[in-house]
Amino acid sequence: MKSRVIISLILLGNILVAGDVKITEDLKSVVIQEGDSSITIERIQDTKHRLTSNFSKTSRECPPFCVQPMHIGDVETIGELELLKYIQDMQKDDADMLLIDARTRDWSKEGSIPTSTNLPFTMLKKNSKYLKKILSLLGAKNINGKWNFDKVPTMIIFSNGIWDAQATKAIKSLVELGCPEDKILYYRGGMQNWNILGLTIK
């Protein structure tokens, strides 16, 4: 009987500890709407959880998997807490923001950040057959052969993480096409950091 009580207390202790896996001291989760579904973004509650995916690797061949710069021109680099705040802000009716997963479709299919739209960096290259259509869908206007980005939402762009150039390439392509740098935010940590923190994946 005594051993059962001890086991129960240990299990209860683990549940209490697991429930303490918050995002910050004051923030347990972020609840958002994606289409008709409600999604709770939170950290994995299992305090013994370990990464077993591709994101558990520490070393990759460079090139192509080289460490990316903290700053790309004057584009602002953000972290997870800022990204979560923007994701919350995107829920408002007057939100003028878009979260872009710049990875190729094969990467994106393995899981992405809730509310993100997959827009592979390859579609933003100058020679891409999709470029005009993509820019138009974003709200850009081609005026006398130059793109005007006044009506484009602020774009938060990410890829796999600090070792992946897909987001960097997407940002550089947009800037080269004339997109103002203050219309772009760079989530450099990408899916690597998102996974390391045990945050919800869609």
Tell me what the structure shows.
By secondary structure, this protein is of the alpha/beta class. It has a domain at 61-196: 3-Layer(aba) Sandwich (Oxidized Rhodanese, domain 1), CATH 3.40.250. The protein is built from six helices and nine strands; from the N terminus they run αβββαβαβαβββαβα. It has helices at residues 2-19, 80-89, 105-108, 131-138, 166-176, 190-196, and strands spanning 29-34, 37-42, 76-78, 97-101, 117-118, 141-143, 146-148, 154-158, 184-187. The protein has a five-stranded parallel sheet with strand order 3-9-8-4-5, with helices on both faces. It has a two-stranded antiparallel sheet with strand order 1-2. It starts with a helix and ends in a 6-residue tail after the last helix.
Rg (C-alpha, Å): 20 Å
CATH topology of the domain at 61-196: Oxidized Rhodanese, domain 1
Helicity level: 25-40%
What is the total tally of β strands?
9
The CATH architecture assignment of the domain at 61-196 turns out to be: 3-Layer(aba) Sandwich
Which H/E pattern describes the elements? HEEEHEHEHEEEHEH
Strand count, sense and closure of the main sheet?
5 strands, parallel
The gross shape turns out to be globular
Low-confidence segments: 1-18
Structural class: alpha/beta
CATH homologous superfamily identity of the domain at 61-196: Rhodanese-like domain
Biggest β-sheet: strands ordered side by side in the sheet: 3-9-8-4-5
- What oligomeric assembly is this protein in? single chain
- Mean pLDDT over all positions: 91
> What count of helical segments does DSSP give?
6
Beta percentage is: 15-25%
CATH class of the domain at 61-196: Alpha Beta
Distance between the termini: 44 Å
